[in-house]
Amino acid sequence: MSPADADARRRERGVIAQREYRKRHASKVQSLQDENQKLKDIIAEIDRASHGRRALPDDLRAALFKARDLAGISDDGIGEQEEDAHTDEVEQVAAGPLLPEQPAHTPAASTAVVRRATTLEIKFPPDYQPPPDERFSPRLDYGLWFETDRVIRILDPPTDIVPYLGAGMHTLAGSIFWSTMDYTLDLWNSRSAPPAARLLDRMFSQSRHVVDTGYLLSLAQARVDFMRKGFMFRKLSEQFERNAMVDLQRLISEHNKSRGLPSKYWKKPEEVAWNVLSQLTPGQATRFQAVIEGKGAPADEEMMRSMITWLAQNYVCFGDGPRWSNISISVGIGSWVKGVNDADAGVLDASKLSAEMLS
C-alpha cells in the first residue's frame, strides 16, 4: 500500500469517526431536550394544580416559584378564578397583616396578625384603634420602584432574614422576628392613632440616625412579602445589595456605644430565644415548640402570646432588625418564666400571666 493510499484511508476513517460522534452527540442533546421538556411539563402541571390554593406552606410556595422561574413558565395559563384569588392575596399582603373576619361586636382591643404556625395573635393596647379599611391604603413600598421593575422577581432573600426562613420560621427566634415585623406593620397602618404613634416612637426614636421611618417600614413590608410569597421585586433587591441596612446598623451601634451601650448590651431574636429556652425545663420547651408549630394547648398558646406581644412592644429598631436591651430581657423574660412556673404549679392562671405582662 502506497503512502498516498494510507493517508486516504486515515482521512476516510477520520470522517467516519466524526460523523458517528456527531450522531451520538445529536442523540444525547435530543435526549436531554426531551427530558427537560418532560420536567417543564411536570412543573407546569404542578403549578396549574397549585393555583388558587392558599393553604400551601411557605417553603413549598417558594419552591414552586423557583421551579416556575427555571422552567420559564408564565402566568398566561391562569384562569380567571385563579387570577382573582391571586389578586385577593396580593391586596391582602399590600395592605399589611392579614386580619380574620370578626363579628361586629368584637372589641378593637385585640387585633390579629397573620395566622401562621410561627406567628401568634398579638394583643394591642386597650386604646388602640385599627385602621378603617387597609385595602384602600397605599403600600408601604409605594414609590420605591417603577412598574417595569415589578416584572422582574428576585428569588434570593435579603441576608438578614435568611435565619428566619425555611426551618427557621418554626423556631422561637423565627416566631419572635416575624411576629415583631407583623406587629410593627399593623402599628404603621394605624399610625394616626395616638397609641400606635407612641409605640412607634419608642421603637424608632432611640437613635438620631433613624430619620426615615417610612423607608424602614417599606423594607419590613418587603421582608414579610418575601416570607409569604418567596420573592420580591428588582428595585428592592438593588437597595438591599447597597447594604443600606448594614450601614444603618453600624451607625446605630456606634451611637449606642458612645452612650455606654455596646453591641453586647443589645440582643437579637436568636439571643432572646436562647435566653428563654435556657430558663425553661425540657418539658416546657417542648410544649412551647408545639405552640410555634400550631399544635399547642390553648393555655400554652395564651402564655406564649403574652411573651411575644411583650417583645413586639418593647424592641428597638437597629436597621437590620429588632434588638432588646439586656435589662429589658432580664426583667421581662424573667417575669414571664416565673409566671409559667406558677401556672404549671397551679398558682397562676394563664390569662392572668398575660394581663400582668401587658399591664
UniProtKB/TrEMBL annotation:
Stretch list, region Disordered: 1-35
Biased amino acid composition, Basic and acidic residues: 1-14
Source organism of this protein record: Colletotrichum higginsianum (strain IMI 349063) (Crucifer anthracnose fungus)
The protein's name in its UniProt record: Uncharacterized protein
CDD domains (UniProt xref): bZIP_YAP (cd14688)
